[in-house]
Design brief:
By secondary structure, the chain is an alpha+beta fold. The protein has 2 domains: 2-75, Glutaredoxin; 85-217, Glutathione S-transferase Yfyf (Class Pi), Chain A, domain 2. The chain contains 9 helices and 4 strands. It has helices spanning 12-22, 41-46, 65-75, 85-115, 124-150, 164-174, 187-197, 202-205, 207-217, and strands at 2-5, 27-30, 54-57, 60-63. A 4-stranded mixed sheet has the order 2-1-3-4, with helices on one face. β3 (54-57) and β4 (60-63) form a beta hairpin.
């Protein structure tokens, strides 16, 4: 199986991390997002949405990070995607929760407009309004994540066992370090992220993101939480 990816991509890294932790062999094909390779004819034929990741398994292609995580987990009969209907439904629920409101407001509303020039609004008033709105909404999602999805008695977002929802959500959450988000005020999120960062392959998978996105932005006066 081949994975088209980029090492900074928030949606590529959950798949890479899960595959590494589960021992799933993948052939990695870099798509250079910085040069716009995703818009060139060769990759457009692979994914007309111009996004990574894309999983290629023979003549079968699959896009969308959460769908790829489910597919890989099913193909490898992974405990990280339990087969019991109630447990699987809970994992699907958490994946959808991260993928919708949380990702939209935390990443696209608060963080990305500050660290990616292509996502910065040209009008300063619009930029400030976008970040203020994203910050306000993100605070609400973080409260839900800390107090309800994880809570004081669970190690992960679906209970005390790691699932593919943790791989997706933790990488999104890690983006907050680009703007020095103070997650220490959220004890349950902090415990969860420490559990994820303790994974054998966490540092390696996030190495490029840390070097090129977290470190250069760490001391800038960016709006955080």
């Amino acid at each position: 199986m081949k994975l088209y990816y980029h090492p900074v991509s928030t949606t590529s890294r959950p798949v890479m991390l899960f595959a590494a932790e589960a021992g799933i062999p993948l052939e990695y094909q870099l798509v250079d997002l910085q040069t716009g390779e995703q818009y060139q004819p060769a990759f457009s034929a692979i994914n007309p949405s111009h996004q990574v990741p894309v999983l290629e398994d023979g003549d079968f292609r699959l896009t969308e990070s959460s769908a790829i995580l489910k597919y890989l987990a099913d193909m490898n009969v992974s405990d990280a995607y339990p087969s019991a209907p109630h447990m699987r439904a809970r994992v699907n629920e958490r994946l959808d929760w991260f993928n919708t409101g949380f990702y939209r407001d935390f990443c696209y509303g608060l963080i990305y407009p500050q660290i990616f020039p292509t996502m910065r609004r040209a009008d300063e008033a619009v930029q400030a309004g976008t970040i203020a709105y994203g910050r306000d909404k993100a605070l609400g999602w973080l409260k839900v994540l800390d107090e309800h999805l994880i809570g004081p008695h669970h190690d992960y977002v679906c209970g005390n066992a790691i699932t593919i929802a943790d791989y997706l959500g933790s990488v999104m959450m890690y983006s907050g370090e680009c703007v020095s988000c103070k997650i220490g005020v959220y004890p349950n999120i902090t415990r969860w992220m420490n559990n994820m960062k303790a994974l054998k392959h966490w540092s390696k998978i996030n190495e490029v993101f840390h070097k090129y996105m977290i470190e250069p932005n760490r001391d800038k006066a960016l709006t955080a939480l």
